[in-house]
Amino acid sequence: MKNNVASGKAGSTATPVKSDGIPAHELPTSRPQGALEPVAFFDDAMPTGVTVSHTGRIFVNFPKWGDDVKFTVAEIRDGQTIAYPNQEINETDEQDQASTLVSVQSVVVDPADRLWILDTGSPLFKPTEFGGPKLICINLDTNQVIKKFSFLKQLHFQLPISMIFVLISEEETKDLRLSQILLRKVQMD
Predict the structure, then answer these.
(1) Which CATH number is associated with domain 39-184?
(2) How is the chain split into domains, by residue range?
(3) 144 near 170, Cβ under 8 Å?
(4) What pLDDT, on a 0 to 100 scale, did the predictor assign at position 47?
(5) What's the chain's Rg over C-alpha atoms?
(6) Which of 39, 70, 81, 149 could connect to 74 by a Cys-Cys bridge, CB 3.0–4.6 Å?
């Protein structure tokens, strides 16, 4: 693409523009961002999510979609994946799925430096059981579960789900109130 110069008001500084009209300074490639640094390699189960805490801790998740998954949430330490927050919670209890992780699809660190874990409760995209689909919040200072939102019992009849979108404002995460949960069933062909 050819760079052009946007015409501005009299006395203003012109901003370089790409030919598609997007200001060049807003493009992600307009300046180097640093070098990539590998922190872990995955040869077995492949993660679908990664998040980094404010202190640099790295978390990944492995949904149970067919790979041999030893744990569905892990922390990367010295290039190795370690079950997080512990191995016990990563071992699904079929009789009490609410107390363990089933098949985690996403992990996110919030502005308050807590880890949110989204468990679809649906290994291999199978129908879920009550207690399987849930949202869990972990305090990264203590590595303890501090809040759990289980999805309503009535909703489990509408599943399996492969995507759950959770909208939480920064204000609401501070006091652990969930403002909106939007469930969307993705049709499986």
Answers:
(1) 2.40.10.500
(2) 1-31, 39-184
(3) no
(4) 92
(5) 21
(6) 81
What is the Cα–Cα distance from 102 to 176, expressed in whole angstroms? 22
Cα–Cα distance, 46 to 169 (Å, whole number): 30
Hey, how many other C-beta atoms are within 10 angstroms of the C-beta on 92? 19
Can you give the pLDDT at residue 166?
44
pLDDT of residue 69: 93
Asked if omega into 28 is within 30° of 0 (cis), the reply is no
pLDDT single digits (tens) 61-98: 999 998 889 999 999 999 999 999 999 999 999 999 99
- Tell me which residue of 95, 82, 182 sits closest to 135, measured CA to CA: 182
Q: How confident is the model at residue 140 (pLDDT cuts 50, 70, 90)?
A: very high
CB atoms within 10 A of CB 62: 25
- Would you state the pLDDT for residue 23? 58
Query: What distance separates the 2 farthest-apart alpha carbons in the chain?
Result: 72
What number is the average pLDDT over the span 175-183?
A: 35
Task: Give the DSSP letter string of 32-94.
Answer: -----------SSSPPSEEEE-TTS-EEEE---SSS--S-SEEEEETTEEEESS-TGGGS--T
